[in-house]
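Section 3.1: Structural characterization of target chains.
Under the original work plan, the team committed to producing a structural model for every single-chain target entering the pipeline before any wet-lab resources were allocated. The record below documents one such target. The sequence was received from the expression subgroup and is listed exactly as submitted; it comprises 398 residues.
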Amino acid sequence: MGSRRLDFYLERLIAEEQFSFYRGIADFADAEIAPHLLEWERSGVLLPREAIDGMARLGLFGIAIDEEYGGQGGGLTELVLMGLAIGYHSHSAAITPGAAVSLGAKPIAGWGSDAQRREHLGDLASGRRMVVFGLSEPGRGSDAANPQVAAERSGDHWVIRGEKCWSTNAAWASHVVVHALTAPAAPNGKRSTCFIVPVRSPGVHYEEMSGKTVWRQSSTGSITFDGVKVSSAQILGELHGGFKIMVNTLNGGRLFIAGLALASLAFALDKVRRYAQERRQFGDQPIARFQRVQDVVLEMDIALERNLSWLMHLAREFDAGKATREQFAKVKIDSSRVASHLLVEAMEICGGVACLDEFGLSRHHNDLFVTRVGEGSNRALMTFSARPLFDDCADLLQ
């Protein structure tokens, strides 16, 4: 598609080696993902194994894993850059390594024991394994701090029962990090524990969720636990410390989701600004000459530059351990909302052709909905993000 406004801004926001890293992944997505998207979508298939293997050979599943375990040794900044590079074409393709790293490998790297890291991280970095984070449930979405999936102690083991849903990468997962209730009477934030559970354990059952119209090449599964026995050695982090793992895992994931929203905005901006120069009407003049068209294109460009600068700043702050969870939530809220609004404006400019799957905008239109509810619903995130603004009655807003 020629020069991209996304590249124009990124090159000025990140270090030269980081931009080269981003461009290498973008070139891969141009050659190995974009040409096949229509075929995959029209066939109704999940992301093919050869595409996943291609991303694994590129090292995408090890982006944020230390080099001693065979990873790239990068941070969240590099993970966000990967999401921008692949998400420009397909959220489904981008979220596959994205969730595998931010929701799977990162919790084990951050809170796993030495034995757990040695067991899992090398295979995760190479793509031989994939871990899914079991968080959402049929009866629990935004209230994820109080899971209905429960683990009860039975002698020297724990027994897990319940169901997780909306689990990204479930079809390819080798293990599930299960966020389960272990101390119902404990104070809020100290009631749950995370367990690393192999998907082939007796009593674990996976089913792909059907009827999904968003992220169509991404696996989204329901995983049930029917009396699954696990040992204390499978506890990730501290007993009853699951809430801390969950919160910190989602913070980084929110920046990745914000990046996917901006990748869609960037794709739409390039598409509409070129279409407006090629589409000729009213005396064989390009519709780009109309100020109302120019206004929308300019609004898109302003939003991309502003939010991309904000996002990359927070990614660096995350890697330095400085930013707050409210900051992560706010960039995710704003990026997803502004991208959703402006993409519809872009589709109006393009008219009926924007409804055709081969044009690409309808794919991003559908997928942007996930950025508004994924890694925490915007409405729920707005609730806790507002609390610091009301110091005098913060206790009433809990």
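The longest strand covers residues 157-168.
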